[in-house]
Amino acid sequence: MDTQIIITISGFALAGYLLGSISTAIITCKLMGLPDPRTDGSKNPGATNVLRLGGKKAAAITLAGDMLKGLLPAMVATLMDMPHGVVAAAGLAAFLGHLFPVFYGFQGGKGVATMLGVLLGIQWMVGAATIGVWLVMAFVFKVSSLSALTAALLAPVITYYIVGSKFMAFIVAIMTTLLFWRHRSNIANLLSGKESKIKAKG
């Protein structure tokens, strides 16, 4: 690997991580006068918790922002016709930024929306198919975590089928693993039948 590609990967990864570290949930709640999502509700700075705390508008803003910060780094790298390694570094770094944000003591969200954004940036059909899985599961079961876990589990397969790259599917599998790890309490609740349904405040 030559010096230029190392510099390129490092630059995209740094930009992706810093963008991913911006918490849309915290900023949205602060601007709209809502409780801090890190200390209220499920204590997770993500769209589902913001939905419970502030309703659909606040949740929609949070969801869009979290997806955008995953989408932009991967999409820019893709549009610039960068190698898969650069695209993967940009997307994975944005995802890691959301999970472990440097601006918030490395205590971030669970990564669902940001991962979906990364998948859209890698290849829009990958993102669309994964979002489709989430929507079907959410409509049928109305449990956010179950929808997210199912979509994430299928994401590496979808990526490989559409993109045809084992490397890119492996990078997506890393995100899936981390997402499952961040949802370990939700998995325990699902197994015990205690996981809450999707419900907006008011």
Which key features would you list for this structure?
single chain; 202 residues; mainly alpha; globular; 10 helices
Question: Can you characterise this structure?
Answer:
This protein is an all-alpha fold. The chain has one domain (3-192). The protein is built from 10 helices and no strands. It has helices at residues 3-20, 24-31, 47-54, 56-79, 84-99, 112-122, 124-141, 144-163, 166-182, 184-192. The longest helix is centred in the middle third of the chain and has 24 residues, at 56-79. It is globular and about 50 Å long. The termini are far apart. The mean pLDDT is 94.
Topology:
Elements lengths: L2 H18 L3 H8 L15 H8 L1 H24 L4 H16 L12 H11 L1 H18 L2 H20 L2 H17 L1 H9 L10
Helix pairs in contact: 1-4, 1-5, 2-4, 3-4, 4-5, 4-6, 5-6, 5-9, 6-7, 7-8, 8-9
Termini Cα gap: 55 Å
Order of helices and strands: HHHHHHHHHH
Average residue pLDDT: 94
Q: Radius of gyration, Cα only, in angstroms?
A: 16 Å
β-strand percent reads under 5%
Uncertain stretches of 5 or more adjacent residues: none
Structural class: mainly alpha
Let me know the number of strands.
0
Count of distinct structural domains: 1
- Percent of residues in helices comes to over 70%
Tally of contiguous helical segments: 10
Largest sheet: none
Overall geometry comes to: globular
Brief summary:
The chain has 202 residues and is mostly helical. Helix content is 74%, strand content 0%.
